[in-house]
Design brief:
The chain has eight helices and five strands; from the N terminus they run αβαββαβαβαααα. With 221 residues, it is an alpha/beta fold. Strands 2-3-4-1-5 form a five-stranded parallel sheet, with helices on both faces. The protein is elongated.
Length: 221
């Protein structure tokens, strides 16, 4: 029987200063400087391009100031409502909303506008291409729209290095090359893979190597 590792490293908090901007510097700067007002923002890009990180960073920034934030994504079942005193609405995965969630999202945006509350929404496609009800699609595209791009290999490498250092894991260049040449540079996927690898190495009482990574992929397939 293998020992199950304890989660001794807490998940990293998504913040603006931990976001590797690359070609997404304009979106990062805009969100960092977003303060009050009801002008909406829409982020779109492929999976792993940083959309959820930026939304979580916006939530963290507001919560650090003692403000209330509303978060809604495809896992949240409607009806949705905005809490009194909410300062910012965050809507993630808008392209995956079902009909009931679309109705709730439209109601939230109407309420937010009437109370002067800003929102930031995100999806894999721009507002014009969203397969959602027309009134919601139109509102989501009211403000600035930023296209997010996946990181280049050197930038993805830097993110992996930073996160592995935070966890106290040594990733050799060989392991790093294996991860970045055999898997998509989708940061959400790479972070999940690193999390699995960390736990597997602890359970095996071994350091992280390419053979260990291959063993994990076979055993956890």
């Amino acid at each position: 029987m293998k020992q199950l590792p304890l989660p001794i490293v807490a998940p990293a908090t998504a913040r603006f200063d931990t976001f590797v901007a690359g070609a997404n510097a304009a979106a990062l700067q805009h969100l960092e400087q977003m303060d009050g007002g009801s002008t909406p923002v829409f982020l779109w890009g492929p999976s792993g391009s940083g959309k959820t990180h930026l939304l979580q960073a916006a939530a963290h920034q507001r919560q650090q100031r003692g403000e209330r934030v509303g978060w809604f994504d495809p896992s949240a079942r409607p009806p949705w409502s905005m809490e009194p005193g909410c300062a910012l609405l965050l809507l993630d995965g808008c392209d995956a909303y079902d009909a009931a969630q679309q109705r709730s999202a439209f109601g939230l945006l109407v309420e937010a506008q009437s109370h002067g509350v800003a929102w930031v929404a995100a999806a894999r496609v721009p507002p014009v291409d969203l397969a959602v009800r027309e009134d919601l699609r139109t509102r989501l595209g009211w403000g600035p729209v930023f296209a997010l791009h996946s990181l280049h290999e050197d930038q993805a490498r830097a993110v992996l290095r930073r996160e592995s250092d935070r966890r106290g894991i040594f990733l050799s260049d060989e392991v790093m090359d294996y991860l970045l040449t055999r898997f998509a540079r989708d940061l959400s996927h790479l972070m999940a893979l690193l999390d699995r690898l960390d736990g597997f190495a602890l359970a095996e009482h071994r350091s992280v190597t390419v053979p260990l990574l291959k063993k994990m992929l076979v055993e956890q397939a």
